[in-house]
């Protein structure tokens, strides 16, 4: 009998312990859920306040960067510009200056700007390359200078735009902005534009470019004081500025102060960069960026020309695979 009573008491005690444990566990779980819910609400509030998605966007503030892109009609044109538009959408202080090698602007580029939401952060220009300077047939792409007419048209528009803005605002001094020649066949990190935004008034900024000139990287060479001594170029190193178009950007006040600074058909192959820079700066006065020219943030990549033999055969029969479509 006593043993039976002791057994019942033991069961009651065990049951009480289990009940107490479950009670405190439920309270703890409730607090955890409440804490998790609170954290979720905080994250949502931060996201709504612009601290979420926007936190990943560089250059939320900074000088306007006029990104100049010469382009021309070809099978990969829309693909190239689409890739570039995705970078530009991530960098809010870029203003895109697209210049087509044509006698008028094209619906393809207009549609691309509209669909990417960049129509308010861009201008669509055109400038036709003279026939005698156009590549013919199977000419290698290095035979004649490319983008001269288009880049000069962009410079003309930028200078006019900056002067008009200054007059409209009643400012004696043009607001700080920068000009970068952003070809559509290169690959760009958004970090590059953080670096470009650091360029000071009256300066030309420089940095390394990957996969160019027969080297893994072309870069400015600095001395112990961080001044540009020269460049490690392997191709025509005797050039005054042996660097790639993707490897520098210009403070716009230099372009306004030196209206003669532009590109030319009359210079030797590979001298377009030197042609404009010789009016603006000297190597020692350039501003090294990208961690003292140790980081590669842009690459001189090129899209492979697509093989369209089947398409050509189809066209001979009066048909097209892309009939009525924009590819």
TrEMBL record:
A biological process (GO) of this protein is:
carbohydrate metabolic process
Q: Any idea of its EC number?
A: 2.4.1.135
Residues binding Mn(2+) are 185
Its localization reads: Golgi apparatus membrane
Enzyme class per UniProt: transferase
Gene3D superfamilies cross-referenced by the UniProt entry: Spore Coat Polysaccharide Biosynthesis Protein SpsA, Chain A
Q: What is its main location?
A: Golgi
Chemical reaction(s) catalysed: 3-O-(beta-D-galactosyl-(1->3)-beta-D-galactosyl-(1->4)-beta-D-xylosyl)-L-seryl-[protein] + UDP-alpha-D-glucuronate = 3-O-(beta-D-GlcA-(1->3)-beta-D-Gal-(1->3)-beta-D-Gal-(1->4)-beta-D-Xyl)-L-seryl-[protein] + UDP + H(+)
What metabolic or biological pathway is this protein involved in?
Protein modification; protein glycosylation
Q: Which domain of life is it from?
A: Eukaryota
Q: Where do the TM regions start and end?
A: 12-28
What keywords appear on the UniProt entry?
Glycoprotein, Golgi apparatus, Manganese, Membrane, Metal-binding, Signal-anchor, Transferase, Transmembrane, Transmembrane helix
Chain positions of site Interaction with galactose moiety of substrate glycoprotein: 218
UniProt-annotated binding residues for UDP-alpha-D-glucuronate: 70-72, 101, 146, 151, 183-185, 300-302
One of the record's GO cellular component terms:
Golgi membrane
Q: What is this protein called?
A: Galactosylgalactosylxylosylprotein 3-beta-glucuronosyltransferase
């Amino acid at each position: 009998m006593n043993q039976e009573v002791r057994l019942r008491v033991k069961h009651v005690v065990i049951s009480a312990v289990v009940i107490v444990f479950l009670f405190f566990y439920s309270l703890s779980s409730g607090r955890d859920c409440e804490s998790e819910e609170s954290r979720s609400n905080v994250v949502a509030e931060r996201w709504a306040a612009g601290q979420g998605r926007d936190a990943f966007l560089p250059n939320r503030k900074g000088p306007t960067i006029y990104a100049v892109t010469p382009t021309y009609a070809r099978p990969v044109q829309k693909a190239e510009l689409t890739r570039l538009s995705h970078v530009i959408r991530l960098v809010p202080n870029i203003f895109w200056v697209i210049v087509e090698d044509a006698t008028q602007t094209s619906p393809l580029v207009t549609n691309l700007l509209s669909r990417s939401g960049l129509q308010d952060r861009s201008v669509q220009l055109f400038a036709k390359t003279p026939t005698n300077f156009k590549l013919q047939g199977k000419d290698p792409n290095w035979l004649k200078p490319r983008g001269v007419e288009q880049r000069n048209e962009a410079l003309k528009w930028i200078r006019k735009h900056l002067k008009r803005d200054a007059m409209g605002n009643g400012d004696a001094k043009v607001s700080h902005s920068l000009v970068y020649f952003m070809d559509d066949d290169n690959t760009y990190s958004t970090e590059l534009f953080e670096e470009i935004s650091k360029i000071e008034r009256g300066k030309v900024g420089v940095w390394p470019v990957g996969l160019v000139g027969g080297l893994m990287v072309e870069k400015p060479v600095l001395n112990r004081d961080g001044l540009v001594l020269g460049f490690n170029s392997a191709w025509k190193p005797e050039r005054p500025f042996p660097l790639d178009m993707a490897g520098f950007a210009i403070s716009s006040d230099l372009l306004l102060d030196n209206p003669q600074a532009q590109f030319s058909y009359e210079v030797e192959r590979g001298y377009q960069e030197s042609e404009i820079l010789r009016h603006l700066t000297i190597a020692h006065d350039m501003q090294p960026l990208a961690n003292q020219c140790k980081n590669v943030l842009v690459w001189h990549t090129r899209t492979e020309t697509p093989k369209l033999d089947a398409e050509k055969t189809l066209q001979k029969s009066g048909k097209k695979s892309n009939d009525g479509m924009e590819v």
